[in-house]
Amino acid sequence: MLSCQQAPNRLGPPPPNRDSREHRGSREHRGSREHRGSRGTVLLMFPAALLVMVVLGAIVIDVGYTTVRGRELRAVAASAANDSLAALDIATLRATGAAVIDEGVAHRIVAQAVALGPLPDARVVDVEINGFAIAVTLQLDIQLVMAPALGDLKQVTLQRTARAVVLA
After folding, report:
1. Which residues lie across from 160 on neighbouring strands?
2. Cβ contacts of residue 103 below 8 Å, gap of 6+?
3. pLDDT per residue over 39-77, tens digit each?
4. What does R_g of the chain's alpha carbons equal in angstroms?
């Protein structure tokens, strides 16, 4: 029977001393030197990556703002189109079944609805009357939030159309 001191070494030779010359040329030591060089590369790449993230964030802010304002403009156009149906001559509609809409009254109602709505700076482009339908087209110039810092684009013009139909 073997004692603890006589047991064969199954784990291999002992690890080299860190101070030995043999260790300086080992693969582990060279790997750490290569790792040290890659830290400098990361430090150089970080500002570029940060700049890309800031630019993408600016684009996201402006696209989101434009989308929200476009939805608001469409809602104002739909509200103005619905309001403009008040220009429909109800007596003629009941008597003959024909839709008679006074264009002048419809234009005034649309202009008033837009002026009193949440986007008073929206412009009425067109009020189209076609039988039982009224289509209102509005435009809105919006100032971008972040794009002026990135380039020459300072504003965008949005145009939205909404229709209101009289169901007979």
Report:
1. 138
2. 87, 127, 129
3. 677 778 888 899 999 989 988 999 999 999 999 999 999
4. 37
